[in-house]
Amino acid sequence: MIPQTILETRGIGKTFGSVLALRDVSMGVAAGQVMCVLGDNGAGKSTLIKILSGVHRHDAGAYLVDGQEVSFGSPREALDRGIATVYQDLAMIPLMSVWRNFFLGSEPRKGPAFDVAKARRVAREELRAMGIDIRDVDQPVGTLSGGERQSVAIARAVHFGARVLILDEPTSALGVKQAGVVLRYIARARDRGLGVVFITHNPHHAYPVGDRFLLLNRGASMGEYGKDDITAQELTALMAGGAELEELAHELRRE
Amino acid sequence: MIPQTILETRGIGKTFGSVLALRDVSMGVAAGQVMCVLGDNGAGKSTLIKILSGVHRHDAGAYLVDGQEVSFGSPREALDRGIATVYQDLAMIPLMSVWRNFFLGSEPRKGPAFDVAKARRVAREELRAMGIDIRDVDQPVGTLSGGERQSVAIARAVHFGARVLILDEPTSALGVKQAGVVLRYIARARDRGLGVVFITHNPHHAYPVGDRFLLLNRGASMGEYGKDDITAQELTALMAGGAELEELAHELRRE
Amino acid sequence: GGQQSAAPPASSAAPQASGAGFSVITHGAPGDSFWDVVKNGAEAAGKQYGVKVTYQGDGDPAKQSQLIDQAVSEKVDGIVVSMANPDALKEAIGKAVAAKIPVVTINSGAESSKEFGAITHVGQSEDVAGRGAGEQLKAAGVTKLLCVIHEAGNVGLDQRCKGAEQTLGGTVERLQVDVSNLADVTSKVTAKLQSDQQVNGVLSLNPAIAIAARDAIKDAGSQAKLATFDLSADVVTAINDGEILFAVDQQQYLQGYLPITFLRLYNTNLNTVGGGLAVNTGPGFVTKDNAAQVAKLAEAGTR
Amino acid sequence: MTVPAQAAADERVAHVGLARRLLIRPELGAVVGLVAVFVFFAAQSPVFRSPDGIANWLDPAATLGIMAVAVALLMIGGEFDLSAGVLTGTSGLILVTLATRFGFNVWLAMLVGLVVALAIGFANGLVVTRTRLPSFIVTLGTFLMLQGINLGVTKAITGTVQVSGLRRADGFESANAIFAGTIEIGGTSFRVAILWWILVTAVATWVLMRSRAGNWIFAVGGNEHAARAVGVPAARTKIALFMTTAVAAWLVGSILALRYTSVQANIGIGQEFIYIIAAVIGGCLLTGGYGSAIGAAIGAVIFGMADKGIVFLGWDADWFKFFLGGMLLLATLANRLVRRYAEEVRH
Amino acid sequence: MTVPAQAAADERVAHVGLARRLLIRPELGAVVGLVAVFVFFAAQSPVFRSPDGIANWLDPAATLGIMAVAVALLMIGGEFDLSAGVLTGTSGLILVTLATRFGFNVWLAMLVGLVVALAIGFANGLVVTRTRLPSFIVTLGTFLMLQGINLGVTKAITGTVQVSGLRRADGFESANAIFAGTIEIGGTSFRVAILWWILVTAVATWVLMRSRAGNWIFAVGGNEHAARAVGVPAARTKIALFMTTAVAAWLVGSILALRYTSVQANIGIGQEFIYIIAAVIGGCLLTGGYGSAIGAAIGAVIFGMADKGIVFLGWDADWFKFFLGGMLLLATLANRLVRRYAEEVRH
Ligand SMILES: Nc1ncnc2c1ncn2[C@@H]1O[C@H](COP(=O)(O)OP(=O)(O)OP(=O)(O)O)[C@@H](O)[C@H]1O
Ligand SMILES: Nc1ncnc2c1ncn2[C@@H]1O[C@H](COP(=O)(O)OP(=O)(O)OP(=O)(O)O)[C@@H](O)[C@H]1O
Ligand SMILES: [Mg+2]
Ligand SMILES: [Mg+2]
User: Fold this and answer.
1) One-letter-per-residue 3-state SS of chain A
2) Could you say which of B17, B56, B219 has the minimum Cβ distance to residue D12?
3) Is the dihedral of CA E225, E227, E231, E236 positive or negative?
4) pLDDT range class, residue A244, cuts 50, 70, 90
5) Is there a contact between E179 and E258 (Cβ–Cβ < 8 Å)?
6) Contact C151, C157 (CB under 8 A)
7) What backbone phi and psi angles, to 5 degrees, belong to A209?
8) In angstroms, rounded to a whole number, what is the distance separating the alpha carbons of residues B100 and E221?
């Protein structure tokens, strides 16, 4: 089976004023594949994701969707090509209720109107399926806990994810149980034939679901590995001293 | 050695409108001790932390500092009692530069003026010590990556931490290396005799540094354990199915 | 100097005109219907004599004096200025006089005109006009008058009301309205008439306000008599229909036209008019008797 | 570890009275201000509470209300329109000038006015979304320019600062009846503008609460970047809001022109802030993302009542603004205190 | 894996020209607008660029500038003050009334005015911080109330709407020389107000950039909750900003009263928006947290030049507002385009 590549970047780069955030990064994600992007803080992962999803425009290299070169002017254009994203920081409208946020930009209709009853019901169900039992879907998102907010964003992207699902540190604010649910979602999306781009700092989260691993450092690519090329140990080691954690446990005990 | 209790809550509770966020929680942290607060998303961890640091006022129970009942009207009052906090969401002023954010509220003086040169230097040094090499401390915080922003907040709290350090999911956005640095900081603070309240979802982060563990669920306390009462495995299990992760690894493989 | 052959020969003693023209600087807000007629008069005179006339107006005395300062630095041939607040303009006018620029004062400020060094004063102070209105209203049997002020704190409007108060003999109540919102004007005047049945006369200080007040009197079912300052085509029609008793007409066209004429004569022939006394332009009254004649003129913006 | 009947009753939800739950809504906070101001004046002035008196103060509240509702939508969407007040004048001037000087039928003249208003609204929106300049400064530019055009063109065409004589134009009667007529209710004649106002408020409320566009409006005002990131057409939404405000200005300008049959060149200047004030009294946030159409309509009534009520009480005109300021402050304060009691904390 | 000489040159920093780095500063963007407007008028009017002409348009720019700088600080701190304009009138009225009707020495009368202004600023700040109402609505209340007081008290004391005769009061000469005098430079007399303006701008810049208070101002405007969470005394900072604005209003009111020796009861109404406009032209964000004092001072000059330049060109007064609006729009647009070119993206 030769998986069909949906997204591809070739030597892509991005500069903010004098800041070189991303340099010469090439990657691709195919249908039914999970691409994990790993790297230190400030390595450029979110910048890459924002280019893929149309928030930023790249200023070097080429970005291809279905083999066709594109340059998205807005996230709407990316969404219309079936690319759904959970952002690390551009998440929610704090003053709006959970259900309004959930369906923002893709409101279900009933005649000319917004089908409010359906929106509430679906939002509640999708969140409960993630193990988040929201008291009241009318609660403004700004009053949710950090993890609850993140869950709303993920549930939304999963619900609307059409061909590619991009997740920027989706599990960072989540409890162990919720993180497990999200990993299962990723696996399920992959099995349904979606391409997934998954960013995380946690090698325990990345290795089980990932098919390919892109490593970024200081804005540049340090190589892309298939799952067969690399073991969990090697990956953890590559993530800048992941193995240290075990030593730490000893070091941190009271002397 | 009987450690001296600095902070203590007795049956504390908090309601937002109709939302019961916290009910009847008792805990304490002593000098030279790390208290880990664990729990699902929305369990009330951040609410507890905000009461401790003076952002919210509790509306039930008692809050004691040095054995004396208090009710802080503002974070300033808590700071003046030596309680420094890294919040999960009230972090930074996006339009202000890194060094201005770093020293906000505790500006170094030189005569009547803000000692700008010193502020820049210290901010840069403290961040580099955390493994974050900021290009330019004049960069607005809003343009930093998620992890870089978090690091600034932690570096600030550590730099100014006087008697108690409260950290709300400090490691969630951090890379493995940076997370290791933060854990070392926590251990170092503990060894210097500070009390630390540490919230995290990651049992691998919590167990090595924690002395006591408070478990919250749906706003209520599920008990407080000493390190000797509980093993790492038990703790992970208590954190709602942490052990599942191993099974997941198999489950998530392509069928 | 010496622009037109039709003009009297320029005397060698006459100040030299620089060609920068004349500057008219009033305390009227732009778009104010009274001052617009002054502007029309000044511009007509300018056209007549083939000289440049620029008009500026600002109700803030500080701004007005800055405009005078500007005219002085431009070295204009003459300045026409209205003095609602003589104290505030003293310094600026003094500078103009010191720079040998002839000044004619118009409208209010007759008392200070000579002292400040103006060559003459043309106009009609607002309180004299107000007194005239008060007399007429008294004759019409008005005992309690509502004076509608459409710009709070405006000196000219205040003087008109005060003048009316002096001659009416009865009580005068003031009402503040917002000129840029006529629905508000109608409603406020109605409110006043509904809540105080004693009021049997309304004096408006602006033609648009007059029309709004006319509707208000109808809405409130009141018998109050209505009079106004200044003209518009609608006001003339209403006078004809008997809805408005009279309009005070200061013939302010003259307050624009004459000063330009006088300055022109002064610059070319050193003539001064009035012999140290003010030249009066009013008050005249437009009533049912003469409304028909002025109707066309009001529509053309010269009355 | 989990409570069995979760859906039925969540142990994390405290019991809260109906009153408190209602008061949390932005519009219901404003109702408290409304009642307070009404009671204050009605208690002291019998005319104020008489049908005639009510018809009187409802009339300016209606035209203000139409604008306040449109401006509230725009403010919820995170923008201001300072040109809205002058645009009422522009629309009225176009109508009267075309009908009286160029022999247009009144309906046709209104149509032209509508097209011009829409074009101006579109231009405002386009400049704001394209240049990303604050709308405060862009529409301030439009405000000044329209002010100049209103005066300059009127002067150039008529030689005076006003155009009049609409009564004699073709189609005046029918247009006047629909936009500026009165309706008798129990012997008191109310202005039809009140009906227009109710209609505008109802439509705006439906759009805000029950349409996709409403969701987008809240979103672009609450956090434009986030909204754009999930695919909300932010620029289109904002342009539509500016055009809506322009249509409201055209409606109000036409109503007033048809009613007074003449328009002065300086009409509407300064009104733009009254619209914003009414919207804020009604609970709209200046920072965008929060508010309601009904609240703005109520804000207009509060302002209208305070504005007229002082006249009904016969207080000294010199002190008028003093009382007005005090009244507005107290009304918003009442609104605020009630909402604070109801919701406690909201960041 | 890390580059050895990190401090020396970071490979993640692209080379960017000096010009581009300078243009990113809020004040330097405004300079572009300034130059554009100056060149436009200077090219067409020799008087405009003559020393006399410059003294002319610098004079109103100076009083506007003093207010714009104070208002800019307040806006950076996230608040508005709509009462600032009327407060200049109140201060002037207090000064002239006390000196002419109650025989106060001019200096003493000014001191009383200062105390009253400080009290009003304090009250504004206190109400805003305590009630958490938007300052727009609170200071609108103050604005209306002061307007009523100005008129009511002046009428009650003098029977007219203006007080005059300050020239004859004790201490007038000395006060006038310091606040309203002129200084000769190369044969042209410039107003001392210009010096006051430079002083105010310098002090404000120092406070913003080099003091703890400046850090707090940016912080409370950028994100008040976050600022409070790290211990910034937000309420105190805001109250101090309102008081600063009040002091500036007092200074400007006194300068104008001493210069014109009389004050009208409606002075300053509507000016509050000009102050905000100048600050926004100078690069302040309406949403707070960003801006500069120098920018606001430059914004005042841009406004002053456009305002007076149109008169110098002798364009028809009817169209004045049209040109003014167009000019302001172009100046801010130039500023914006330059800054966009310089910084590309900023959320
Ligand atoms: N708008 C911007 N303007 C200037 N610099 C920016 C901007 N956005 C990002 N950067 C810089 O680009 C670099 C890469 O940022 P990015 O957010 O992509 O990192 P990241 O890999 O997602 O890090 P993290 O794991 O901490 O989220 C950072 O150093 C950041 O400071
Ligand atoms: N201001 C508020 N208004 C209403 N409800 C609130 C508010 N703040 C928090 N809550 C609710 O209280 C509950 C506890 O929130 P809290 O932020 O303390 O959770 P948490 O344990 O920190 O969760 P997480 O791990 O996801 O950060 C949540 O269900 C949240 O919806
Ligand atoms: Mg990131
Ligand atoms: Mg939390």
Assistant:
1) CCCCEEEEEEEEEEEECCEEEEEEEEEEEECCCEEEEEECCCCCHHHHHHHHCCCCCCCEEEEEECCEECCCCCHHHHHHCCEEEECCCCCCCCCCEHHHHHHCCCCCEECCEECHHHHHHHHHHHHHHCCCCCCCCCCEHHHCCHHHHHHHHHHHHHHHCCCEEEEECCCCCCCHHHHHHHHHHHHHHHHCCCEEEEECCCHHHHHHHCCEEEEEECCEEEEEEEHHHCCHHHHHHHCCCCCHHHHHHHHHCCC
2) B219
3) negative
4) low
5) yes
6) yes
7) -100, -20
8) 14
User: Which among A20, A56, A217 has CB closest to E13?
Assistant: A20
CB atoms near residue B80 (< 10 Å): 13
Whether chains A and D touch (3+ CB pairs under 8 A) is answered by yes
Mean pLDDT within A72-94: 85
* Under 8 Å between Cβ of E71 and E285: no
Beta strand C53-57 with E182-185 is unpaired
**Residue type, position A167, single letter:** L
Please give the Cα distance from D267 to D273 (Å, whole number).
14
Report yes or no: A218 at the E interface, CB cutoff 8 Å: yes
* Distance in Å, CA A45 to ligand 3 centroid: 6
Question: What are the tens digits of pLDDT across the range B7-64?
Answer: 999 999 998 877 888 999 999 999 999 999 988 888 899 999 999 999 899 989 999 9
SS3 E288: coil
Distance, CA of D138 to CA of A198 (rounded, Å): 42
* pLDDT surpassing 70 at residue B176: yes
CA distance D180 to D187: 18
8 Å CB contact between D117 and E289: no
C111 CB neighbour count, 10 Å cutoff? 12
Using pLDDT thresholds of 50, 70 and 90, give the confidence band for residue C15. Answer: very low
- What pLDDT does A159 receive? 87
Q: How many residues does chain A have?
A: 255
Sign of CA pseudo-dihedral C249, C252, C253, C259: positive
Interface pTM (ipTM) of the complex? 0.87
- Ligand 1 centroid–CA D129 distance in Å is 26
The torsion defined by the Cα of E295, E300, E303 and E309, in degrees rounded to 10, comes to: -120
Cis check: omega of the bond before C8, within 30 degrees of 0? no
Nearest to C95 by CA among C134, C138, C66, C124: C66
Q: Is the pLDDT of residue C13 over 50?
A: no
Q: Is residue B143 lining ligand 1, measured as CB closer than 6 Å?
A: yes
Give residue-wise pLDDT tens across range E247-285. Answer: 999 999 999 999 999 999 988 988 998 999 899 888 888
Report pLDDT digits (tens) over B99-129. Answer: 999 999 888 888 888 999 999 999 999 888 8
Q: Which of E67, E165, E83 lies closest to E117 in space, CA to CA?
A: E83
For residue C127, pLDDT over 60 is answered with: yes
Pairing of strands D182-185, D188-191: antiparallel
- Residue B101, CB-side half-sphere exposure with 13 Å CA sphere: 32
Closest to C233 in 3D by CA, of D161, A48, A59: D161
Q: How far is Cα C139 from Cα C303, in angstroms, rounded to an integer?
A: 25
Q: Do E314 and C154 touch (CB under 8 A)?
A: no
Question: What's the rounded Cα separation, in Å, for the pair D58 and D191?
Answer: 8
Round to whole Å and give the CA distance between A196 and A34.
5
Chain A contact set for B207 (CB, 8 A): 249
Looking at residue B182, its amino acid is V
User: Tens of pLDDT along C73-109?
Assistant: 989 999 999 998 888 899 999 999 999 999 999 988 8
Q: What is the pTM of this model?
A: 0.89
Between CA D38 and CA D244 the distance in angstroms is 31
Give me the residue label for tokens 């563990």: B213
